[in-house]
Design goal:
Number of strands: 8
Shape: elongated
Radius of gyration: 38 Å
Structural class: alpha+beta
Length: about 375
């Protein structure tokens, strides 16, 4: 006779029903005392709580005296926080295990007994999960500070590893949560797979932005504070680098949010990159034929040196580029400390160059058109001066 669907489900639940009897934690030499106190659950509970409290204090004392003494000798505060975050769940573990033993001492109904132990186990799981989430970033920062040994973990890759570890911890915590409450995780994982496929199709753009954000963080084509230019036309200072989007502050003081999927497929010009965090500006200048070229070079270079925001290393340079149709073509090369200042400094330099040329009598040629009339049309009157 085939088993009904209800019987199959019942059998499955029995298979995944956890054995929450933790009396095995009691050592053999304490078994006689346990059996002697078992008829007095109230007294046994009080003794267990006092023992757990004393053991928790002992654990905290040992950690504080030994580990904290070592961590205080280091320059970083990260290891101090790490020890502090791990101390609390350790103390809570001793108290929770004592409460579990106390619950086992009471002759409670099976359902109430299992539910109480499951609640205590869930509290313990959440405590360690919280500690893991809080210590993940601290561990990554410690590894990043020792980048000579752990080259893959750097400050720019910390957000990527931090999110990955947190996702794994939450998934692992959810798996153990199902086990604690006697729920078949296999069926839930299968359902999650189907739901994941559906969500993947529905949120493919968001997932594309998410994975593009991970690649941007790992590849690091730019960082917060850099001035970038995209082939799509956007340019500005990077103010925020998130997992879904990147924010740029343009020269018009307007914040633009760009999805990471667009940036990942775009050509990026990082004007703050390179060996110097400086930007070169070019100012082409044409002077009339017959001008003193040495005087022109000195005047252009002096105009750049007189500006307080032009950097001195590397210093400004002047190059004669070509013999133009109506001018001698020069170019002033100067460096500024940040691309955001380019427009204003270029404006100042153009004014200073014009004033300096005017004072020294250097002519800036401009297109002129001379019109010659060979004959006047019939009936037209001649122009009078």
């Amino acid at each position: 006779m085939q088993a009904t669907e209800a019987e199959k489900n019942t059998a499955a639940e029995e298979v995944f029903k956890p054995d929450l009897d933790i009396s095995f934690l009691i050592p053999d030499w304490l078994q006689p005392t346990w059996e002697f106190l078992s008829p007095y659950p109230g007294l046994l509970t009080m003794l267990l709580i006092l023992f757990a409290y004393a053991l928790g204090k002992l654990v905290k004392f040992v950690i504080t005296r030994s580990l904290m003494k070592i961590t205080r000798k280091t320059d970083s505060d990260a290891d101090d926080h790490l020890v502090d975050y791990l101390t609390r769940p350790l103390v809570l573990t001793t108290v929770t295990l004592a409460l579990m033993l106390a619950v086992s001492a009471y002759k409670l109904p099976r359902g109430l007994h299992d539910a109480t132990l499951s609640i205590l186990a869930t509290i313990l799981l959440l405590s360690w999960l919280r500690a893991g989430l809080r210590t993940a970033r601290i561990m990554l920062e410690l590894l990043a500070s020792n980048h000579h040994r752990f080259e893959i973990v750097q400050k720019r890759t910390i957000p990527m590893f931090d999110m990955t570890i947190k996702i794994l911890l939450v998934g692992l915590g959810a798996y153990f949560f199902l086990l604690i409450w006697g729920i078949n995780p296999t069926a839930w994982l299968a359902s999650a797979g189907v739901i994941g496929i559906a969500v993947g199709f529905a949120a493919k753009d968001s997932l594309a932005n998410l994975f593009s954000g991970l690649f941007i963080v790992a590849d690091a084509p730019y960082k917060i504070g850099d001035y970038i230019v995209l082939d799509t036309g956007e340019r500005g200072k990077v103010t925020s680098l998130g997992m879904r989007s990147t924010r740029l502050l343009t020269r018009d003081d307007v914040e633009v949010t760009i999805p990471n999927a667009i940036i990942a497929n775009a050509k990026i010009v990082n004007e703050s990159g390179g060996p110097w965090v400086k930007h070169r500006i070019r100012i082409p200048v044409g002077v009339a034929y017959g001008s003193d070229v040495d005087e022109v070079c000195d005047t252009l270079e002096q105009a750049a040196n007189d500006h307080p925001e032009i950097v001195r290393q590397p210093g400004p340079r002047v190059r004669m580029r070509a013999f133009g149709n109506s001018s001698l073509d020069f170019e002033l090369l100067a460096w500024i400390d940040h691309p955001e200042k380019r427009g204003r400094i270029r404006h100042d330099l153009l004014k200073n160059i014009y004033k300096a040329f005017d004072q020294k009598g250097i002519t800036i040629p401009f297109p002129q058109t001379d019109v010659y009339l060979r004959s006047m049309p019939e009936g037209a009157e001649p122009f009078e001066d």
